[in-house]
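Helicase SEN1
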Amino acid sequence: MHPSISSFPNREFYDSKVLDAPNVKERTYEKCFLQGSMYGSYSFINVTNGIEDQDSKHSTKNMVEVAVVAEIVSNLFKESVASKQKVRVCCISPYKAQVFALQEKLGKTYNIDGNSDFSVSVRSIDGFQGGEEDLIIISTVRCNRRGSVGFLSNHQRTNVVLTRARHGLWILGNGATLMNSGTVWQKLVLDTKARGCFYNANDDNNLAQAVVGALVELNQLDTILKIDSPLFSNTRWKVCCWIISLNLYY
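Structure:
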């Protein structure tokens, strides 16, 4: 792992007893997959307008996060083609419903063969133990006022999901929900804020548009029309006022 990725799990799970190998400390180990500080080696991308939902099997999914992941992967593919940089990406989520939704969204657009120039796989946490990839995108799914995160709070699963990336780890989630959970994820959000690795998805125009598109598909018009929604915060509005003068003749 790049040192910026190993920093939190090393401190949280191993009492900072694990040492970074000399090669990961070298400048050449750092890779730039996308432009912008949001897409550094380690970041938390705050998706504030997510919608937590359950499928028929009572597994949780968040289609807004699915849309954000799909947009990021699309941009990664374009950049990989332009730069001719070989990239292996894995999208991980703790919930089977989210894994299925991501697989449906990404479809057969991207190659899953790790030997290709650009490959994307989608896995559950339990299905990825022992694996690793260049870039890991985590969708934490949960978005509620209660701070309820279910088995996402499991330390072993959290340890697994945070230690699978070699060069880049991007964590998607609702910062407020995770902060209210009182779990290891609260510590993680605080860590990313303290280290300047906490970003709002709406600050990226492409991600903001993906959020709006997902909310439209979900028929969440009330969410879209809130003043702090991505529709308003990322769009320049031109307001025209028409004054009609009525002359009354008697």
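The CA atoms of residues 47 and 201 lie 6 Å apart.
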